[in-house]
Amino acid sequence: MLYWNIYESAEARFVSKHITNKYDVVELGSSIGAIGTLAGKIKGDKKLICVEVNPDLTDIIKKNLILNGVNNYRVCNVGIGNSNSCLWFNEGANNTTSYLSTGRESGSKKIETLKLSNILQKESVGKYQLICDIEGSEIDILLNDPQSLENCELMIIEAHKVQRNNVTYTAEDIKKMIEKLNFSLIDQYSVNFVFTKNYEIPN
Length: 203
Fold this sequence. Notes:
6 helices; Rossmann fold; 7-stranded mixed sheet
């Protein structure tokens, strides 16, 4: 998939088109580090924070960044959620089919979770560009930690249908929630969205 440029192709196109060297980059859901590496080549000397919940992938991310000459990076092995909540990591057949759940399933591993705002504070991130593909956990940011997006200048996000507190949120719901946080949609492919911060005063 990497060879034929079809691995996370929408995200890769959006990163190449929209990420700049003006701000730090925070990637949630780094997987094997392919998208982070692409962003890392563009960001210049700005910070790259890679967040990945699967502990088996953190060394692979680091190796890919090093092999591609990316510097000034940090790899964080945590899940995105409330710091007082419990999430479970469920390993799939490969890196693209693993997922998080709020309840324990057969073979689940309990994981450490942090709010995005905690990670930004810990890593001293100011204004930043966000790449987010965390299989539904994006709803936890929007519901419980929207202030973490105040300094987000650009957001590339894959939205997932997800349920929280017996409420189902679709990709379209997530899109509208982000727009209400004063972001403007500038690009889209299926459920992959690109937003920029809207500095116009809303009516």
